[in-house]
Amino acid sequence: MNWKNIKFIFQREIIDQLRDRRTLFTILVLPLILYPLLGTVLLQTAQFMHKTPATVWVVGADRLPQAIKLIEGDRFVEGLADVATLKALQVETNQEMSQNIEQTILKRWTRHESNNADEFKLSNLDVELKRWIQEKMNLHHIDVLLWVPMDFRQAGDSIMGSEPTISNFQIIVNSARDKSPLAGADVHRILGNWRAQLIEANFTERKLSFNLAFPFAIEAVDVVEGSLKQVAVWAKILPFVVMLWALTGAFYPAIDLCAGEKERGTLETLLSSPAARSEIVLGKWMTIMVFSVSNAVLNLFSMTLTGLLVLKNLSGAAPVGVISQIGLPPVSAIPWIVIGLLPVAAMFSALALALASFARSSKEGQYYLIPLLMALLPLMMLSIMPSTSLDLGTSFIPVTGMMLLLRNMIEGNHGLVLQFACPVLATTIACCWLSVRWAVSQFNNENVLFRSSDQFGVTIWFKQVMRDRGMKPAIGHAVLCFITILIVKFFLGLAVTMPGSWGEFAKQILIIQIAAIAVPAILMAAILTRCAKDTLRLKTARPGIMAASVLLAIMLYPSLAFVGKLVMHVYPPSAELQLLELSLGAIIDSAPGIIAVLVVFALVPAVCEELAFRGFMLSGLESLRGRWSAVLLTSLFFGATHAVFQQSIMAFIIGVVLGVIALRTGSILPCILFHLTHNGMTVVMSRVRGLASSDSPFRWFLQEVESDGRVYVEFQPIAIVGMAILATLLLAWIWKQKPRQDLTHSDRSPQFPEELLISTHSR
Amino acid sequence: MIHARQLKKSYSDPLVGEFMAVDSISFDALPGQIFGLLGPNGAGKTTVLRILSTLLKPSSGTVTVNGFDVVKQAEQVRYQLGFVSNNTAIYDRMTGWEMVRHFGRLYGMTESTLDQRMETLFKRFHMERLRNLLGAKMSTGMKQKVSIARALIHDPPVLIFDEATSGLDILAAREVLDTVQLLRDQGKCIVFSSHIMSEVKRICDRVAIMHRGQILDCGTIDELIVSHKQHDLEELFFQLVSASEQMETPTSTEC
User: Fold this and answer.
1) Does A22 lie at the interface with B, CB-CB under 8 angstroms?
2) ipTM surpassing 0.90
């Protein structure tokens, strides 16, 4: 690596970008003028931010008491709500119109013989009458219709002296009009306050203490000071906005530095220079990162400064909704955000660079970067979800972990920050490194750099697929199989409902396993390759290897169960998931016998999943640079197809072992046996009772553990360690087996670059 | 200086599948000579030159440039050559001076040597006007001058010109051809690809006629004309290409 070359390329790219007016405007000028402009607009519009006037029609206003008034003229009585609310609600009590409406409604109500006028309830209206009322409300611009009950009389007369009856005031809103539900809520509050006044008057009349109606008061206290509450708000907003700007800030330079250079023909000039591809990538990556960070930092400063000025001005005026609760942005948080921004911006820049290198023109580059935004946005959004907090689990999630770390830094939770800083930084740095590696590999791929304009059509594609099919599937085919499985599983998942019996549950599992997992893999192997049998690794294996696979599954089971427990500890299942597990557990318990459970949960998944993952997908991915990459990617796919995250982690680990067995033996039969045994062990362990009791011969390596009121059988620590050692020896023995004679990609005739296959399929 | 043996390069084409852009060609280009690659568009000339300049890796075969293998010693090969093509554009937002200087730095030249060399080149090619002119404001001829200066900045023993006069007006094209001849006279090994007969005829010492990824014949222009009993290069070219079109499996000629 020649660092001087990286420096020269970096310097040139920076100068080049600084001379580009579009980049300068988007990255440097826009952030500086955007927020002051928004602030000015906010200040200008703040004066108009008051409650929207709404009209309230009162039907039966003559039935309202006069002693304690609800309405005074065309307004509700002062004191029943704040001045702004009372001012916004115009009350209409036109006797003639209101009687007209009342009579029509009652007439329609009493058309049904069963309906009594005294028992009239608006909530029981039929659809036709509701529609008529809605039309009337639209016609007369009525936002709220307040129905005074027929049996409601002056409070003092009706309630006192006799057993009081409860009358129903009814508030009719038209939610098709935006302000109607809001005005309805205001009227509801006003009626509540007025009712309190009536109660007080009645109690006073009867010489009773008003406190009788309220035996106790409720007071909610927030221990967080006002300023800290405001910090909490900014702690969520600032990292989100900054990361979003870092991502968008990486976009334009990445497109210009890759697709733009290709378009202008300067990339070829650069590639023919002595600078190595990795040096070119690093120079460009650093440039993109500078602009990504600058964009985010400038936005941060501009937003903070404008926020300080605007909110200071607004806080002097009347409180304006949420703005008054936000408070001023915490300036002390800025250094933390900038520090956290650096590794994330580095990752965004590398991802943008790698994706942009695919594009042949700036326009095409924009198409490629939109999916990146769509993929990263959920990770950013996750960090501002109220239920998401910084823990060991979330700290391993790229982007989310860093944003949660920043949030806690700003909030001053330094203990938590110190606890999880290492996993967050390790994850971020690892992702960044992988992204840079990807970008370098893109620049080493001549199919990416010198991609010519592809002609594409379904017929051409189909002919090409049939013509180019080789003995084994291509990487693109493996990815396509994985995506197909995900999509079919998703739609089947939508179609099925919560099973009511064992039969239904078994049927659902069998359909998903066969239709979503096995069938796509078998069909693809038959259509896309010349030898489905070789692709799916349907070969016999030596009896010794078959036996070793079964034994390995048994020996490895305690360790995997232990890791599973750890996973559950790090990522505890949600209450809903636990409930679902209990319900499904009850259904499984109702199965006719253990054989049926073993067939559904062990045999069928073992066959179907091995055909798809260690069969078709691993065969396709084997042409990746390292075989470990193929095993890891297959395992990642295997994990991703499991619906529950905790299961996905375990599936990934088991997938790695299965991948190694498949590669070293060249057959999926040992994998099926391993898978069958592992799943079978899970079924058996959940059903055995008494094996760990004091008089059991198995008590030396089994123990009973009680959790959540249920008793589980687990392995003793000594058993876990001992069996893990034996499993390692077995795995080492399998590893030493002679790898099968593989069909290499040269057998595929003619050869077709996988990058093109992927890009063609994706279009 | 350049030795290519059984060079092959295949691409995948969505329409026709495996496509042999260069099919088992062998040739030698020597110092003090201009080796011409003459062929119609799509003959495989650019692919051969991209392999020589290490932009592409051959599917099979070997190529050495000044003793260095283009696959195993790609970095050393890049120091040995200067590559000019109609695709090797210059940066729009850099001046002629900055552009040449940038590449000189990438070739590891010291600042003093670089300054000296740049002054010589800018004077020799009459590029004083281009010193402070941004690439975006240059004419095609000006751009090609800067491109040649960029390729010559490290004084390489091998120069590759891939349709370097394409898109140039007659004066600018003549200037480029004069420069190529001047460089030949300085002892450089030059590979010059073109589909313009008159240019090849005028400057090339030896010519390889390419079609469909293969060399149909190779030699000095006079040798070729005599051996194929034709009147001039143009007739010779048509005769070779037509004969190749009629053959089902034409074979490449070694030269």
Assistant:
1) no
2) no
